[in-house]
Amino acid sequence: MAKITYIDAIKQAISKNLKTNDKIVILGQDVQIWGGYGGLFKGFYKEYANRVYDTPISEFATVNIAAGLAMAGYLPIVEVSFFDFILYAIDGVINQAAKIPFLSAGQFSTHIVFRAVLHSGRGYGATHSQSLEYMFLEVPYIKLFYPSSPNQAYFLTDFALKNIHTAPVFLLEHKLLHQEQEEFNPNIELKPYHPVQYTQGSQLTIVSYGRITKRVLQALTYFDKDTITFFETPFLKPLNIKPIIESVKHTKRLLVIEEGHGTTAAWLLKHIVENLPKGVLEQAKTLHFPSLPHPYNKEIENRLIPTVERIQQTIESLLKQ
Amino acid sequence: MQNAVYKDWLYKMLLIRAFEYFTKGLYTQKIVTGTMHLAIGQEAVAVGSIAALKQHDIVTASHRPNHIMLAKGLEPYKIFAEILGKATGYSAGLSGNMHLFAKDKGFWGSNGIVAANIGISTGIALAQKLSKKDKVVVTYFGEGAMAEGLFHESVNIASLWKLPIIYVCENNLYAQSTHISKELATKDIAEGVAKMYNIQTYKVDGMNIEEVYNTFVKIRQQISKKPQPVFVEAQTYRFNKHSVNEKISDYRTHNEISTWQERDPIKTFAQKLIKEFVITKEELAQLIQKAKNRIEEAFKKAYNDSDPKLEEVLKLWQKSPILMQ
């Protein structure tokens, strides 16, 4: 089977759904000619001229318009571009789109797919590099998906566009994963809302997601195979954490790693720890970006994102204790 | 025929006013909690404009929605049930009157956030354009909402995309306590919007139901012929305070209020109908009583309904944060 890149996998999944679901409408900045960030939507305007809309630089209106479209039975894909730009539209996401299904007691659904690209580690500076998924963790109904491989990207995009959701879904991509390649397997099945388990060990349980997955996998090569259980959470929310809890019951040690400022890791930790039986947990730690804006200097920025080396050192220190 | 229509308009305005006064009482008597924004004085804008629309047109409103909902034909009983937080309310007692939805009635939501429905309604209008239906979306908001960025982003896009939407600014001169002269730099809202966004705009006397109706008939026909956004400034006044929780109205003079009250849209229209022998004084008194009775009955019926069940509400929640099996 042919190889496919992460961004092409997302494109394939959108293309497939555009063909079968005529309610899908694409909205955002520069989507018609450029195809949005990274050219994701390139070519769709030619094929579906009345379903691809270039918006002015009006994030707030774009998100509210998407909510109105969804209420009327359409399925908008919103090009957020840099995830940071969603901040301009936050009322539209949290107060409007996410609440309308509840406030209307189910009369309206607001299934919208927000496509947002993360950029930490690229020297883009403080306003173009944040991992803002933490802002939506406790917003009822919002779903967060974040693939780390092309096949995951294909599955999650296709899954996000299925008519099974009633509220906004964030599809998070990392720019540094866009050109990752693997053998394309369109029949890949992820178990909805379950973590993906990579390794099975008895000493430590690690949970991570998104781009950091690759770094953890690299760090794991320094340790014996039966030492560490590693879970990735491509479905970040909602998430069935039962497999993780079962694992920590045996390993008694937990490490949660993320690329952002640590709130998501803390959130995962909270839900795992409070569901453990008394006396089980011996060690729990999170690894994340320090409480600083992202410095522009790329080298410094990259030393602050959990590196393979820091992940490895943290694992070592946890195993010693 | 025309007389029956006039009587219907008058009755609808009386019903709104009866509803608003009754609702005000519920708050002062602490029968209900939270807040409530009344539209006493603004009835003609709602009744006159909605009378000119087609039944299937979609309407949205702001945090001051009662007159719009009643003019659109929502049942007072089910609005009361919502205000009382009952399971039989339009939004099952989950939302109150600031986030009330009645999809089947063509009322697609009030909204507690100023200007939010201007954006959402623009999206609903895009959906009408995509499905090629002769359906118009009408969204109501106060002039205070025009200072929000979302208003400008939305009208700009509606103009670029030729969306079938009527933006109705109920200019009641005050954003809470702040006078329009301190909110908006333009001296002429309708002219300002027309120039900036290249759309048709109208200015109407919101205290005159016939003028409101005639203007909206014209606009509605225009949009049927050629889908496009239209902006209407309806000059009106709220006789009451911003919300039921406002203690004193220290930002307006009694003189200003009483000057506007002389232009009361219900009083002036009723006087006109009496003068033109459309109704008698006795008939007017009967209509007032009929409206009051209907509101009281609706309230009584809603008051005895059941609250939503906590278990049912939690069922809505379970899909949300982290799944546990």
CATH topology of the largest domain in chain A: Rossmann fold
Measured between the Cα atoms of the first and last residue of chain A, the distance is 46 Å
| Widest β-sheet, arrangement of strands of chain B | 1-2-3-7-6
Q: Label the overall shape of chain A.
A: globular
Round the Cα radius of gyration of chain B to an integer and report it.
Answer: 20 Å
Could you explain how this protein is built, in words?
The complex is a heterodimer of chains A (321) and B (325). Chain A contains 11 helices and 14 strands. Chain A is an alpha/beta fold and 321 residues long. Chain A has 2 domains: 181 residues, 3-Layer(aba) Sandwich (Rossmann fold); 125 residues, Rossmann fold. A 7-stranded mixed β-sheet of chain A has the order 3-2-4-5-7-6-12, sandwiched between helices. Chain A is globular, with a radius of gyration of 20 Å. The mean pLDDT of chain A is 97. Chain B is of the alpha/beta class. Chain B is built from 12 helices and 7 strands. In chain B, the strands form 2 sheets. Chain B has a 5-stranded parallel β-sheet, sandwiched between helices. In chain B, strand 4 and strand 5 form a beta hairpin. In chain B, helix 2 packs parallel to helix 8. The longest helix of chain B has 27 residues. In chain B, 48% of the residues are buried. The chains are: A alpha/beta (321), B alpha/beta (325). At the A-B interface, helix 3, helix 4 and helix 5 of A face helix 5 and helix 6 of B.
